[in-house]
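Notes from hallway chat w/ T.B., transcribed later so I don't forget. T.B. wanted the structure written out for a chain they're using in a teaching module, and asked if we could keep both sequence and structure tokens in one place. Agreed to drop them here.
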Amino acid sequence: MAFPPPGAQDPNPSSLPSGGPIPGTLHLLPLRERLALVTETMRELSRQTDPQNMAKVYLRHLRQLLPNDGLVAVSRRDLPSPHYRVTRSSRWKEEIDPWLQREKLPVVTGGILGDLLYGNEPRILEELRVEPGDPAYEHLQGFRSLAAIPMYDQGRALVLVALLSKSANGFDPEKLPDLVLTGNLYGRASHNLILARQLEQSVQELDFELRRMEKVQASMLPAKVPVVPSLVLERHHQTARRAGGDYHDFFTHPDGTLGILVADVSGSGASATSLMAIVHTLAHVCPPEERAPGAFLSYLNRHLTDRCNSALDTFVTAFYGVYQPVTRTLRFALAGHPPPRLLLQGPDGWRRRVLDMADGLPLGLDRHERYNESQVALGQGDLLVLYTDGVTDLESPDGKPLGLSGLDHALALADPAGEKAMDKVVRFLRHHAGGRGLRDDLTLVFVRVK
């Protein structure tokens, strides 16, 4: 039904009776005013970000829609039957925020308000009588009628607002249905606002913990690469989220050899970082007799399988190699990890070799897995490229992964013998991603023989 605007003329004035009011005007004007009131109230409610302010808007709306002399509100949320809290009262001199000052709210049982709240139905008490022993006596005494507006959640009235009048029969029963409707709309809106506030608080707490986890992860990675006279070491590490599961490390041994570890925990986020921390700890307390590549991975595998796999339901891929600077040889073993790429410098240019000779299951799946070793000789200028699958899985804006061919292309363009090979490869990866966020952590380690 469309309401004519105030002062509008009827298109056919001759049809109007002469003398007396225009038929329908007496009931159209209140409806139009009521519509404007409800509309403005809904707009104001939609702008609120604080539940306490939202409650003030709603209660002001109630006073406009149904004039009253006072009110009291009760809630049974988070309380067992038949208990309830008095959350608001026009008799209170101090304003209490029921969401932030719950400890100040009295918890009571029984009485008129308890019966109305647990009765789950809207009611009008045209002749209100309250005994001095009633828990709500201080809030209800002096009032002679009451309109009870329940607010439902999961089919139960968890909150009830009681409007009060000093006159008997002070409320129009015809308005009660609208009050129940608007009251429950307000109830859902305020509840959603509270949930949004709780969600925001949880997100802030989670973000704080992830920032701390990010710092923990950074502290576990080597602050700088070790100085090895015959090698140039470079690395690039990037997480998909605040914290991730990629891990690389270097171990200088007393005999002059260098251990190189690159590992990738399945999954990402805080759980991956937690397992990464365990791998870091195990790697740094590994006994000397377990430092050979195969023995080292077997040692990690046993401990991860025994202590973590059943609890975390995850696994770790890893490369571990030991470089002997005197003989320029690299002994290595793989645990389900992408095999390294070795770029060999020869008289006719660069030749690529994939070191996939020694592989085994990822760590944490089978404690009895044994990891075989292989050995490769490195010549002057050769470049060993270690990486996690976050590199080859890196997607372009149209969803195309970089792949092994893309990595090889990036290495060829970068000039493996150049001093800025890592920088050029990283720029190539960023160009390929085209600003698209990472879906997985990525790690690159370059080992170049001087």
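Follow-up for T.B.: The first strand starts at residue 70 and ends at 75. Might be a good example for the class.
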